[in-house]
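Holo prediction. Input below; ligand is magnesium ion.
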Amino acid sequence: FAKEKGRNNYHFFDPTLDKHLQQRRQLLTELTQALRGNEFELHYQPQVQMSDGRVVGMEALVRWRHSQRGLVPPGEFLPFIEGSHLEERFGQWVLKKALEQQAIWARSGHLLAISINISAAHLLAPGFANFLRRYLSEHPELSPSLVTLEILESTALDDMQRAGKVIEDCRNLGVQVALDDFGTGFSSLSYFRTLPVDLIKIDRSFIFRMLENDSDCAIVESVIYMSRRFNRPVLAEGVETLRHAEVLRDMGCDLIQGFGIARPMPAGEVERWLSGWTWNLDARSTAH
Ligand code: C2E
Ligand code: MG
Ligand code: MG
Ligand code: MG
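Structure of the complex:
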């Protein structure tokens, strides 16, 4: 009763908040239609293994192909989907679409791992691992070991026990789990101990300034060191220059991803990009 009363009061007294609420509802309606109308598309960004320059995988990154606004980046609409009734359905669409794409590549001879970003509510929704199990068994052409689920530290933080359980369930299917944007959460270090993840992705904010900023450099170096100590491969995201790549390689980083290799691209461009890909890091030094 108190809540109802509160809501009425706020409708009455705060017309600006009400307007925001209406805009939010309007956008959510648009997003629902976008999902139905197939207006979302996945772009793919390569992930490269530093030891030999091989492209080992692609991260699927969603965009909204909007009739008026063009290609809308996820930062502008995901916050509205997350926490809404659309979140799980949207997440399922991304998951299926990315897995389908991997199967298409596999059929044409490109054995690429696929990395899929999974939101907290989607991961923790009942039946997530069961859905994945069913999907993978219905599609024997997909190899579970080539599927990586990227989850944010904050996902695990919200409900550590349940997150840990779902992560275990997924890993029992043979699927890999990566901790995305590592270092931006609250208890990063304890995750090394408690979360059974296969890959650590160092947040790009640390990579961005690591060449100029000594403490960022120290953080990157320490995370790489810790990952190796725990026998977990580590990926640096946001690698924009050759110099970054060289320094990261010398620090012992396993994988890199970033504009310096390629920007996220539509699925249709991937094969052509792959055939033109050359690795020019080895030519300069062979420290490790
Ligand atoms: P993320 O998973 O950490 O993805 C990396 C983001 O950094 C992507 O932004 C990518 O385009 C960008 N990036 C990659 N390399 C570089 C670089 O060298 N320099 C710079 N400045 N940026 C780089 P994007 O595509 O805008 O995605 C932003 C975030 O939205 C993602 O961060 C992820 O958390 C979320 N997201 C994207 N697609 C999905 C999805 O399908 N589902 C869910 N749940 N979240 C998604
Ligand atoms: Mg990611
Ligand atoms: Mg990230
Ligand atoms: Mg991010």
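The chain has 13 helices and ten strands. That is the main takeaway for now.
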